[in-house]
Amino acid sequence: MDREAKNEKEENDREREKGVAAMVACYQGFDPAAYLQYNYMPPRADFDRQDSIVPWKLGCLHRAFTEGDVGGDVLVDVGSGPTLYQVLSGCEVFDTVFLTDFLEVNRQELRRWLQGEGYSGLDWTPYLQHVCKLEGRRPSAWTEKAARLRSVVSDILPIDVHLPRPLHPDSQLPTAGADCLVSCFCLESVSPDLASFTRALGHIRGLLRPGGHLLLIGALGESYYMGGPGVRIPVVPLDEAQVCASVRASGYTLVRLEVYTLPKGMMVGVDDVTGVFFVKARKP
Ligand SMILES: C[S@@+](CC[C@H](N)C(=O)[O-])C[C@H]1O[C@@H](n2cnc3c(N)ncnc32)[C@H](O)[C@@H]1O
Ligand SMILES: O=S(=O)(c1ccc2c(c1)CN[C@@H](CF)C2)N1CCSCC1
Predict the structure, then answer these.
(1) What b-and-e string marks burial along 178-198, b requiring 16 or more CB atoms within 10 Å of the CB?
(2) What is the CATH number of the domain that holds 162?
(3) What is the mean pLDDT of residues 59-64?
(4) Which residues form the domain of 226?
(5) Which of 7, 16, 62, 92 is buried most deeply by CB count within 10 Å?
(6) How many separate domains does the chain show?
(7) Ligand 1, residues 57, 60, 101: which to mutate, most atoms within 8 A of Cβ?
């Protein structure tokens, strides 16, 4: 590499590090309780309307986990935040589930739910009941599903998708890698730009075994969201073509893309999301 190219690469690396550091600073104000209220409680989180985003998301995950090509022992949820909906179908398929997040406040929120004692966060019962319905079980089986989830979560780990190795080496992941990754509203919400989003996809690919699957849910057209009162967090605005190109450029085979367009009434000022994508991809 000649001197000019070396200087340009060093400048690009410095810019990238500054962007990531700025994102870390934004997340210091993240408020799990507020985030759950903004996105996972009524009226935004509505199960009654068939065209609501929540049944759509849970349906995408249910189909992806149960259509026969996804399996193995280990499922990793990348950037869990304070939420659990993303593993309610997967917990029936995998015997070992790792939840992960960058922030201790989120890992603590998840621990509180898993321990069952003194949890004062979101009531996940409607989500558990809905997934039981998708599985053809009676809604009252939600207590069994909650117990199943508590039994298969092996650990709640720190993660940083901007690192080439996002998990600490002691994380007890199998040497060959996880059998499946799920990640929801994380990569585009923690990356300063599209190149960083694509790089992060490549970093988490290293957590997967060859032949393993990535199930990715994310925001389309979103440029910011409120991570708490007065906590405005920038988001990489993505369109469908960019999502597909980044998935392929980071080394996955795209199995399918599904898209949900938000009805106008869903725009309530906590973000400017216009749609949601679901990607099923495979590591060759
Ligand atoms: C918009 S929230 C998504 C939470 C949840 N997965 C959901 O579906 O709502 C983004 C999450 O990414 C986490 N995060 C922030 N920086 C990160 C990083 N560098 N690597 C991995 N996760 C990060 C945040 O702590 C937050 O929980
Ligand atoms: O499930 S959602 O599509 C959803 C759920 C979570 C998020 C967003 C959207 C958009 N901003 C993200 C910031 F990263 C977080 N949904 C938006 C409509 S109302 C119910 C929640």
Answers:
(1) bbbbbbbbbbbbbbbeeebbb
(2) 3.40.50.150
(3) 98
(4) 3-282
(5) 62
(6) 1
(7) 101
